[in-house]
Amino acid sequence: MRPIDELAAETAQNIRFVLMDIDDTLTTDGKLLAESYAGLWQLKMAGLVVVPITGRPAGWCDLIAREWPVDGVVGENGAFAFWEGEGQRLKVLTHPQAKPNTAPLLQEIRDAVLQQFPGFRIARDQFSRLYDIALDFAEEEPRLPLETAAEVKKLCEQMGAHAKVSSIHVNTWLGDYDKLSMAIRFLGERFGYDDAAMRRQVVFVGDSPNDEPMFAHFPNACGVANVIRYETMIKTLPAFAADREGGLGFAQIAAMLIARRTC
Asked: 236-254 pLDDT, tens per residue?
């Protein structure tokens, strides 16, 4: 990874889309900082397309699409995208393979994890999820080792589901999709994005293993400094990195991108 201050002006001036994870990328210790939220506004006011790409639930994404300075949000690790249309009407694009989280297999996986891994628990935001099961290992106490989260991910996959480890949850779902595939689908349908021709026009900012497909796909992907915690779990790290963690790292990346665009 190269320091974010090595981002070239020519590269920054070609950027049209800024995508970002939320937990431990926009937030720090679970809080959305003034600096990172201001960064979203600055990017939006600079004329860039701003889209969070998150594992957070549909209930959160409804609020984000309506109240944040964004052009849409991809939620539950790619199950859907929400955005505000004309007349402040919430628009929804659902991945065709997304299956409801009431599916019997997901309930079996949930029960198996809770039985085999003491201390794991259902995430508090599960009530507002539509398509996945979120298993908490680090959002609330007790915080469990990352190695245990990796074992839970493996069990979910062995039982026939997809699973990803974020900085706080193991998310598991049915359907062949992820953050990357739904981001591409949403940008294409909403903004005419052509992935083969335009991926260098995208900056994605993330921090954890569930962001790796985005890191690997977009040449100008960035990480906040805490991404280094997961280097043993991520084969492809982002091209650039902030020297600050969480929301302050995102704010640093946003400021650098805007500064380089005006060179």
From this structure: 999 999 999 999 999 999 9
Same domain, 86 and 207: yes
If asked whether residues 209 and 223 sit together in one domain, one would say yes
pLDDT tens profile 73-94: 999 999 999 999 888 899 999 9
Q: What are the structure tokens assigned to 157, written together?
A: 């996959």
How confident is the model over 186-213, as pLDDT tens digits?
999 999 999 999 999 999 999 999 999 9
Question: CATH code at 150?
Answer: 3.90.1070.10
Strand ranges in the chain using DSSP code E only, listed in sequence order: 2-3, 17-20, 27-28, 31-32, 49-52, 73-75, 80-84, 90-94, 121-122, 132-136, 162-165, 169-173, 202-206, 222-223, 240-241
> pTM of the entire structure?
0.96
For residue 244, the tally of other CB atoms under 10 A from its CB is: 18
Structural domain count, the chain: 2
